[in-house]
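Consider the tokenized backbone below.
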């Protein structure tokens, strides 16, 4: 990833628009820090932004910077410390504003400063705060003083997280649905990072306080307990309020804290503590590819800093890290990325890169056009101003001429002013000086008009000078009117001289008129030159896009011969749909080109069909390589690409045979569809009656299986209470009790799913019968049947595993795996039921609530099992006090051999698991039509 692309993403993510930061831009920024191993490019781009003058811009900067500190490269913290003082000053500045985003920005900046200081003091804590219990112990170096200080620092950290949380809610109008507006989401989106931080900080605080209470007197820790209780109540309230907002319901599942805070005075209460986990329910992921990637980022970003980045970048950051999350249902269901996913991801990135380049090119073209238009408008405005100035001067000249004629008629009255001759002579001298100054100013006006052709920027100043000169002229005219009432023959001579000067002024104004005509001609020439430049720019854009389209198709033809593309992972049905879509794009391209030839000045109607044509032709060629192929299909794809290149070449040369080449491209695409149609595998023909009966049968079988499983668990629990005592009874009650809660949640889920399914069928079948509806929507029906089977099978397997564990013959790990499978199957059932339901459907809301209960109960089974496992491991701790040195050495060697054997077995088992998941993915894709784009 180059610095230019990262800079573009930073400017798109941090803008003045009051809307949430788009995840795809934030993700590009995060990947950029890992690529350059630091945040130099980020800070270079940010320093150019006016963060101190726009509060929305500063708020979105804080959001992106928070993401980089959490999920970016570890060197982001080091590169950002040098800007710490600037962030402090900016926080103080925004703190003076009590309205809008000002106070929010001030608190958010303070939180980021606290986060930087915390991680600087405690380098063992990663940016996303994900740590194991062992790493938490190592952070305190097994020193109670370090643990005491660390707890205080976490309290301070949590305090600012809660301050930001509370301030955002306080700034919202909770009487309105603010979470569905762009402005509301702009304020709420950074709280996702705060929720992720708070969940970890709360968990570590509980564990550290239990550790401190085991080492220090209770009185010493009274202040810690009081502060924890205060933060516990605030966090519980904020989590509850957040979980009720529609915005968060769509993106993540917020954990709910227990009713009462943990009792640190009772050491056994630690086993009752369940770490809060922020979940991303898979049923909330929309089918759109871009949205799906962004939703997964909310989970993947939280585990980013634990990946080594030495292997495949995308899988390490957004795929492999999911295996550490016990409630990642997509990974447990076997949906790992394979070569096809990498190819699709690569193509998406190339498409996004081309779109960005085209957008930048289009923006630059628009900017040049806008500048030229603005310059033309400026010149036209200056021309109008000069024209107005000329008209005003002509009017003033006519007025002066009229006044002079009046003076001539009044000169007979000058004999009455003989007594004031001395004073009149003095005033005449003054008038002569004024007229000399006026003459000089008019000369300056003439000179300024001559300079206008060379220095266009001085037009405004020249207008001002001309206006001052006209004002002096008017003032002098009034004085002349008074003077000529008393002037004698001497003043008559002066009047003749003034008339002569006015004639000279008229000549100067005529010269200015000619200069204005020259300026207008220059402006017209500039306008024509700008239009020619715009046309040349449009032609350049079309040529560049045509070249890029040829490159895309040529690249797909080159990749056609690559061996790893011949994997046969795409169904022939999907290839047929892509070929038909390419035919439509070809027809649209031909129509758009004809429209462009009719009106070459408009390129907006040509570029989108051209880009779509290139990508769809390339897609058909690549999908043909991935389809179970034959020589005919391979040759057909190659012919299609060759004809498409010939078509684009004819468009570049403006040849008249473009329509002929277009027809050849269409014929090649239809040939590919016919070959793919011949390669289609035989499909299973299920009658309408069989498919409808099968749905009812499988739903009834699932309900019966879950009911049977719940009954068996209840019988096992009663038997254990009768036959077992002591620790074994406690273990069995804990495990079977959590399994009972899980089965009850699944029963409620099945009932809600049946109600929703019935409503979907009744509202969607119209005049058709129920079985006809199932047959018409066969792909959806098959998915519903598959999900129902998975739920029933998971419940049965869990009961068998619990039975063996209670009898002492099973493994605790079986229960954990069964819990994960049930959670994943539940998500599959909800997704299958949700596809055709309305967004605000009451039964859908009940089904989603039941799904959350199942997820929580599955987490309870896992937590109970792990707790029992830890108790048994502590009980079975070996005593080496009676062994000799030789015996201990022998045991050590045996243990090392056993460790190597287990590691070898673990590696082989992981490889086996990967192959099984891949096979599961292939079979599920064939049976449920994942590769069928039409569905």
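A designed sequence for it:
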């Amino acid at each position: 990833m180059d610095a230019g692309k990262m800079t573009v993403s930073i400017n798109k993510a941090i803008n003045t628009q009051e809307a949430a930061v788009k995840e795809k831009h934030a993700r590009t920024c995060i990947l950029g820090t890992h690529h350059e191993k630091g945040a130099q490019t980020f800070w270079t781009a940010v320093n150019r932004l006016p963060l101190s003058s726009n509060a929305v811009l500063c708020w979105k900067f804080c959001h992106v910077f928070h993401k980089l500190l959490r999920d970016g490269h570890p060197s982001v913290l080091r590169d950002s410390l040098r800007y710490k003082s600037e962030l402090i000053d900016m926080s103080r500045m925004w703190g003076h504003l009590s309205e809008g985003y000002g106070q929010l920005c001030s608190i958010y900046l303070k939180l980021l400063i606290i986060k930087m200081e915390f991680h600087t003091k405690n380098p063992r804590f990663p940016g996303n705060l994900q740590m194991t219990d062992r790493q938490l112990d190592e952070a305190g170096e097994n020193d109670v003083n370090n643990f005491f200080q660390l707890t205080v620092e976490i309290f301070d950290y949590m305090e600012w997280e809660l301050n930001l949380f509370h301030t955002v809610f306080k700034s919202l109008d909770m009487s309105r649905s603010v979470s569905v507006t762009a402005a509301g989401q702009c304020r709420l989106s950074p709280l996702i990072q705060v929720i992720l931080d708070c969940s970890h900080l709360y968990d570590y605080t509980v564990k550290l306080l239990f550790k401190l209470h085991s080492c220090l007197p209770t009185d010493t820790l009274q202040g810690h307990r009081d502060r924890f209780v205060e933060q516990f109540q605030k966090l519980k309230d904020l989590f509850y309020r957040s979980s009720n907002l529609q915005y968060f319901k769509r993106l993540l599942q917020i954990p709910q804290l227990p009713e009462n805070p943990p009792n640190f005075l009772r050491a056994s209460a630690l086993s009752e503590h369940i770490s809060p986990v922020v979940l991303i329910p898979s049923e909330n992921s929309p089918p759109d590819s871009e949205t799906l990637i962004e939703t997964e980022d909310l989970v993947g970003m939280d585990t980013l800093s634990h990946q080594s980045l030495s292997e495949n970048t995308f899988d390490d950051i957004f795929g492999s890290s999911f295996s550490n999350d016990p409630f990642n249902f997509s990974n447990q269901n076997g949906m790992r990325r394979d070569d096809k996913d990498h190819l699709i991801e690569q193509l998406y990135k190339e498409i996004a890169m081309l779109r960005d380049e085209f957008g930048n090119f289009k923006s630059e073209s628009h900017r040049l056009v806008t500048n030229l238009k603005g310059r033309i408008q400026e010149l036209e405005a200056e021309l109008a101003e000069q024209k107005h100035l000329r008209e005003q001067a002509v009017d003033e000249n006519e007025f002066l001429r009229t006044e002079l004629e009046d003076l001539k008629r009044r000169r007979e009255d000058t004999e009455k002013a003989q007594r004031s001759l001395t004073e009149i002579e003095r005033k005449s001298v003054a008038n002569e000086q004024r007229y000399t100054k006026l003459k000089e100013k008019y000369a300056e006006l003439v000179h300024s008009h001559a300079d206008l052709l060379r220095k266009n920027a001085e037009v405004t100043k020249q207008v001002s000078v001309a206006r001052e000169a006209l004002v002096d002229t008017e003032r002098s005219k009034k004085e002349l009117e008074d003077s000529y009432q008393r002037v004698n023959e001497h003043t008559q001579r002066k009047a003749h001289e003034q008339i002569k000067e006015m004639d000279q002024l008229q000549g100067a104004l005529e010269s200015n008129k000619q200069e204005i005509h020259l300026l207008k001609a220059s402006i017209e020439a500039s306008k024509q030159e700008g239009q020619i430049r715009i046309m040349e720019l449009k032609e350049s854009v079309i040529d560049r896009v045509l070249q890029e389209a040829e490159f895309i198709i040529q690249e797909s033809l080159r990749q056609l011969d690559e061996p790893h593309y011949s994997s046969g992972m795409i169904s022939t049905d999907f290839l047929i749909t892509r070929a038909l879509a390419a035919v439509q794009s070809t027809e649209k391209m031909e129509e758009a080109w004809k429209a462009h030839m009719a009106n070459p000045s408009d390129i907006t109607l040509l570029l989108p069909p051209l880009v779509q044509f290139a990508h769809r032709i390339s897609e058909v060629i690549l999908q043909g390589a991935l389809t179970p192929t034959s020589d005919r299909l391979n040759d057909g794809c190659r012919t299609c690409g060759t004809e498409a290149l010939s078509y684009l070449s004819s468009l570049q040369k403006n040849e008249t045979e473009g329509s002929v080449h277009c027809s050849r491209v269409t014929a090649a695409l239809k040939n590919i569809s016919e070959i793919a149609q011949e390669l289609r595998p035989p499909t299973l023909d299920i009658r309408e009656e069989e498919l409808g009966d099968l749905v009812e049968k499988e739903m009834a079988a699932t309900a019966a299986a879950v009911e049977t499983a719940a009954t068996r668990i209840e019988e096992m629990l009663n038997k254990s209470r009768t036959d077992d005592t002591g620790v074994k009874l406690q273990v069995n009650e804990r495990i079977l009790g959590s399994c009972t809660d899980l089965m009850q949640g699944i029963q409620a889920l099945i009932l809600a799913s049946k109600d929703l399914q019935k409503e979907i069928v009744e509202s969607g079948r119209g005049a058709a019968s129920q079985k006809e509806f199932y047959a018409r929507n066969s792909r959806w029906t098959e998915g519903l049947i598959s999900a129902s089977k998975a739920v029933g099978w998971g419940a049965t397997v869990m009961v068998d595993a619990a039975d063996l564990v209670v009898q002492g013959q099973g493994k605790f790990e079986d229960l954990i795996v069964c819990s994960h499978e049930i959670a994943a199957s539940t998500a599959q059932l909800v997704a299958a039921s949700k596809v055709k339901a309305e967004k605000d459907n009451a039964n859908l809301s009940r089904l989603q609530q039941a799904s959350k209960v199942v997820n929580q109960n599955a987490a309870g089974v896992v937590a109970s099992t792990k707790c029992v496992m830890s108790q048994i491991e502590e009980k079975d701790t070996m005593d080496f006090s009676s062994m000799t040195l030789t015996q201990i050495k022998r045991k050590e060697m045996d243990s090392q051999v056993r460790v190597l054997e287990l590691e070898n077995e673990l590696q082989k088992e992981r490889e086996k698991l990967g192959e099984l998941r891949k096979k599961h993915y292939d079979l599920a894709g064939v049976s449920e039509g994942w590769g069928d784009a039409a569905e």
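Confidence is low (pLDDT under 50) at residues 282-336, 682-689, 926-935.
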